[in-house]
Structure to design on (257 residues):
């Protein structure tokens, strides 16, 4: 199998794709996710971990909102992995991640993830290639552990945004008041390392991991949201959680004299 090269992967929807039809499908998928989520909670035997990775402004927040807007907030948890705290730095790189893995019956969304500790570290040369490969193996072991030992399905989504579209979205954060809070000077400085980030992401995407990646064209919000919700629905259909039977003991209690 040929290796993935992101420069050869489109960040746009296929030509002649109907936005109206796609947006209707996305709404339908969001409704279906809510139904499956209730069954997952009730069954209490499986869990779902969704990993969202992508460059700044690729749409991790927006796609999360689109997918889960119809769901009850109970047993759905979004985790944002930012710069490690001093306590987190004092532990191994997966320590802060493992304790955020979903319990049975719940869905967790990682807005950035354990892969940050490979990506950004490689881009800034904080770890060498040998150390990076070691971390890949440890991440793979972690994902296999939670899948096998805790019945957790892992979905990994790379939000593929073009460099030109990222610039547009970063500038929106400096011109639209409702987006000011998203602005960070560090986003622009990290953008200067774009080529190194793409190379690092290609290594992540080409690594033969236990849980495969889905590359999500993300230049158009409406198409990005569609692919994200569709991928989640397909996973939940395959998991097929069911409402449990009524506990028969409720009907075997002795009647009052």
């Amino acid at each position: 199998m040929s290796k993935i090269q992101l420069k050869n992967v489109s960040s746009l929807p296929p030509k002649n794709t109907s936005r109206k039809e796609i947006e209707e499908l996305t709404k339908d998928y969001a409704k279906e996710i809510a139904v499956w989520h209730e069954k997952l909670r009730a069954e209490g035997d499986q869990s779902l971990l969704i990993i969202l990775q992508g460059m700044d402004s690729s749409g991790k927040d927006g796609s999360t909102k689109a997918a889960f807007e119809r769901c009850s907030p109970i047993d759905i948890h979004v985790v944002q992995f930012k710069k490690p705290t001093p306590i987190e730095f004092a532990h191994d790189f997966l320590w802060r991640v493992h304790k955020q893995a979903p319990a049975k019956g719940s869905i967790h969304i990682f807005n950035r993830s354990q892969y940050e500790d490979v990506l950004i570290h490689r881009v800034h040369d904080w770890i060498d290639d040998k150390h990076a490969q070691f971390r890949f193996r440890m991440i793979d072991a972690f994902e296999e552990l939670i899948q096998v030992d805790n019945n957790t399905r892992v979905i990994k989504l790379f939000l593929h945004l073009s460099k030109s579209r990222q610039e547009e979205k970063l500038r929106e954060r400096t011109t639209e008041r409702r987006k000011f809070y998203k602005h960070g000077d560090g986003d622009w400085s990290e953008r200067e390392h774009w080529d190194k980030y793409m190379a690092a992401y290609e290594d992540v995407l080409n690594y033969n991991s236990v849980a495969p990646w889905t590359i999500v064209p993300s230049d158009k919000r409406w198409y990005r949201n569609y692919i994200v919700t569709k991928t989640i629905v397909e996973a939940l259909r395959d998991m097929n959680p069911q409402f449990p039977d009524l506990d028969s003991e409720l009907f075997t209690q002795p009647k009052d004299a």
